[in-house]
Amino acid sequence: MKNIICTLALTLSSFILLQAQELEKSLLWEISGNGLTESSYIYGTIHMTCDATLSEGITKALDETSLLVLELDMDDPKMQMSMMKGMYMKDGKTIKDLVSEEDYLTISKLVKDQMGIPLDAMGNIKPFFISAMFYPKLLDCPVQSYEEALMKVAHEQQEEVLGLETVEEQMSVFDEIPYEDQAIDLLRSAKNNLADDTASFKELMALYNDKNIEGMITMMETDKNLSTSKHSDKILYNRNKNWINKITDHAKKQPTFFGVGAAHLAGNNGVIKLLRKAGYTVQASH
Questions:
Q1: For a designed S-S bond to 45, which of 97, 118, 146, 281 qualifies (C-beta 3.0 to 4.6 A apart)?
Q2: Hey, where are the domains in the chain?
Q3: Of all helices (H) and strands (E), which one includes residue 105?
Q4: What distance in Å separates the CA atoms of residue 46 and residue 146, rounded to the nearest whole number?
């Protein structure tokens, strides 16, 4: 009995260590095993960057696959219209309903200074999406997109582009996150004229360029913004779990290249460990 207890204790310890083990520094991962006849790949993108040049390893993985799957089907001509519909708050809510008159003036000044638009003209847009309009301002360069770079290759290879979720599913996340929390984040940005946002984005880019996906997930979980730290289950983990069956279904049918935000990869509820838990071999591909 004593030996059995010791064995169980060692097994449990090994399991806990395995779960806690940090992933390698890599943005590109190969998915194989569990009945797959050919490997698929998953790549962690960052949605906004100065240089979206694809590395040799990424282009090789794209050559070895026959389908590109992103978070959204960015080939869909109706995508932009669907996104526009999903930007607005429900039940006729406006920013004025979420903050004091003084705070509204503070946000209004930021929007006017940065965008040249009166806040009244966009007052019923979800606060998160008003914040997102400032993101290009955080870069000191013209914005490039890894998703667009991946799609360019897929189009050149005459391959289909699909999505892991619909626009409606992605946009509904920002109805699940209380508008009040989103407004607190927007107000914080306005009060320091994007200083915190600029510093956070610089830190995030440094982690991304270092391929440190574990560091990225830690940063998101401790971020000052309530939308990311308080609601990481809605922004990341619930979506990750919903994606696993879709990822494996595509991979079983044909070798597929998946491109998702890098923050979705790491952590015990990240795509890599969820795929491993489902029986697949997921290894860093350098």
A1: 146
A2: 27-284
A3: helix 101-115
A4: 7
